[in-house]
Give the backbone structure.
Amino acid sequence: MLFTEALKLALQSLWANKMRTILTLLGMVIGVASVIMVVTLTNGAKAFVTTKINTYGASVVTVSKMPQTFITVDEYLDFQKRRDVTIDDYRAILDECRSCVSVGASRSTQNGKVVYQTKSTTDTMVRGWTWTMPALSNINIESGRSFTRSRMNTVRTWRSSAATLWTRSSAPATRWARRFA
């Protein structure tokens, strides 16, 4: 059988069975699209995990009540049952961890209230960090300045405001980090 005869026979068969041809073509398109989607999602998840791991580095350990992402609602509810990480836990790690090069703490709340003189805002994200957290989180400040150890010890108003934030904030997004030698 010549190539032209085989091609003519194939085209006649496709034309005679139009519904089967269309469904086969549709199945192939869906299959190829599914494979492309799975590969793309897998590569995206890999990039996300790699970025999260590389952000802190290999020598940083974090302690948190809840992770940043959840897979199921049941997982979220299980994490809600954990006890809150408190400023006392941070101080215990700071005092008792002899192999820690640096220990830091951060706290944030989504529904904070900020007051300045006669003006105020509500539902403001308020984030507080110890002076060591930018280095632990690999964050470089491009403009302005961050707190230093000496500044944190001398600024009484910040310390009292931070204490108020620690005790009054209901957000469980507290995280402690420590870097080992």
Remarks:
- The beta strands are 60-64, 100-116, 119-129, 175-180.
- The chain has seven helices and four strands.
- The mean pLDDT is 76.
- The first strand starts at residue 60 and ends at 64.
